Amino acid sequence: MKTRPLQNLYLTQSSDICRKISRRDFVSPRDESIEKKGFFNALKIIFLDRDGVINRDPNGYVMSWKGFHFLPKVKKSIRILNKNGFSLIVISNQGGIAKGLFTKEALNDITKKMLLAVSKSGGKISSAWYCPHKLEDNCSCKKPKTGLFKMATKGIKFNKKDSFFIGDSEVDIKAGKRFGIGTIMVFSGKTKRKDLKKIKVKPDYMADSLLDATKIILKRALKKS
Which residue of 21, 22, 98, 220 has the smallest Cβ count within 10 Å? Predict the structure, then answer.
């Protein structure tokens, strides 16, 4: 099985980059204290939206580390998923960059500190992938398009049947279904249970938090074993 090294952060640099993907087209700052040595060889992947799943939804954008606040028991959930053989990848739209609200450097700093905090708690997020574009840029990486998923898993053999995307919006559910993986909507961010009537594309599962989503995944895995 071919594997490839995976670094901690990949950030698309420009709107036209999505036309042709190359490793040189990403900013990839490394933090040796949290970067996995060797190769990333995941059979089961949990893709996570960031805002509203990992951290409190800012009702806008998280523009600095000061505005980033982990949701309750998120780090515990990540640790449990890791221990049960799941690798975690963040997939997030961060169009505030294209709008000039914050910089790539600010996003890099937030991500680096997020990954380090998770690592210190005994868990690991293997990589974080962001779309920095505005909707009108018509890129291929902005969810619900699946460009980020494809970039994140390029060269990696993994089992889609045992993989999930956990998000807090209909856009996330659409993206996960288009990529062909299971979907879980959590009600810790933008979408609340009362909003379900308005949603046309329904998730495979629903949960109040990342910890509840983790329990769903593990219960499902136990049934299959």
Answer: 22
Tell me the domain boundaries of the chain. 9-224
Check residue 4 and give its pLDDT: 36
Rg of the chain, C-alpha, whole Å = 16
> What is the Cα–Cα distance from 206 to 113, expressed in whole angstroms?
29
Nearest to 183 by CA among 213, 224, 212: 213
- Smallest Cα–Cα separation from 186: which of 219, 221, 217? 217
49 is known as an active-site residue:
yes
State the alpha helices, DSSP H only, in the chain.
74-83, 104-120, 147-152, 170-179, 210-224
CA distance 200 to 198: 6
Taking Cα atoms as reference points, which of 86, 220, 224 lies closest to residue 158? 86
- pLDDT of the residue at 38: 32
Catalytically annotated residue among 51, 57, 162, 168: 51
Architecture of the domain defined by 9-224: 3-Layer(aba) Sandwich (3.40)
pLDDT < 70 regions, the chain:
1-42
Set 25, 49, 109, 208: catalytic member: 49
Kindly report the pTM of this predicted structure.
0.84
What angle do helix axes 104-120 and 74-83 make, rounded to 10 degrees?
Answer: 70
